[in-house]
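Message: I would love a firmer grasp of how sequence relates to backbone shape in proteins. Thank you; the sequence and its tokens follow:
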Amino acid sequence: MTEDGGTCLYRAGQGESGQSFDGDLTERDPWDEYAEPVEEVLAEHGFTDLGRVHRHGALHHLVATDQHGAQFELDGQGRFSIADARVDADPCTA
């Protein structure tokens, strides 16, 4: 957990889907096979759709957010994570 402007934020860590993606990672269509089942679960928990492809350095990823600012990220290597989930913790330490 970290504190940002008086808000306590939690990072759940990183998981591995065990399957990297095939196809052109810069276009959304090749991601659909992997993104759509994930989006169904994310929607049940208040997250947006994964949306367009983002790039950070050499990695391509999709991002969904919830109403409180938490971010779910799925990358082209099959890794996923949740970060910046606001939590109620006093003190805001691990």
Q: What stands out?
A: The beta strands are 2-4, 7-10, 13-16, 54-56, 59-65, 71-75, 79-83, 85-87. The two ends are 5 Å apart (CA to CA).
